[in-house]
């Protein structure tokens, strides 16, 4: 939970926790243990590097809401706007321009509050 809080921030984690129900508690537990307790807590990559990889994957898969959340989380991970842009350039080449185009719009809105 400490890693999840350090990346996403207390406000986000508190909101997610407050909105849990009996239905999604097992899912939230799995995410906390698997994503945050294992993947994000490993020593092989920095939080900045994990952030860049996560942004690229979410963009390539078209997961806009999660992408926006992780773009905002770069304030906590050390990934820069330039890092995000470069990750999305890779998405354009390896996952397609339409995916990257959408991701650029999402990132601009998340970073700058710009509606495109």
CATH superfamily of the largest domain: AhpD-like
Overall outline: globular
Structural class: mainly alpha
CATH class of the largest domain: Mainly Alpha
Largest sheet: none
What number of domains? 2
Q: Low-confidence segments, ≥5 residues, pLDDT <50?
A: none
- The strand count comes to 0
- In N-to-C order, the SSE pattern is HHHHHHH
Share of residues in helices = over 70%
Organism: Roseibium polysiphoniae
Domain Carboxymuconolactone decarboxylase-like: 27-109
InterPro entries: 4CMD/NDH-1_regulator, AhpD-like, CMD-like, Decarb_PcaC
GO molecular function, one term: 4-carboxymuconolactone decarboxylase activity
Q: Can you characterise this structure?
A:
Pfam families: CMD. This is 4-carboxymuconolactone decarboxylase. There is one protein chain. With 116 residues, this protein is mainly α. It has two domains: 1-44, no CATH class; 46-116, AhpD-like (Up-down Bundle). The chain contains seven helices and no strands. Helix 1 (2-8) packs across helix 2 and helix 5 packs across helix 7. The termini are far apart.
Question: Characteristics of this structure?
Answer:
AhpD-like; lyase; mainly alpha; about 120 residues
Produce a short descriptive summary.
With 116 residues, the chain is mainly α.
Helices and strands, with pairings:
Blueprint: H1 2-8, H2 10-18, H3 25-39, H4 47-61, H5 64-77, H6 81-95, H7 97-112
Helix pairs in contact: 1-2, 4-5, 4-6, 5-7, 6-7
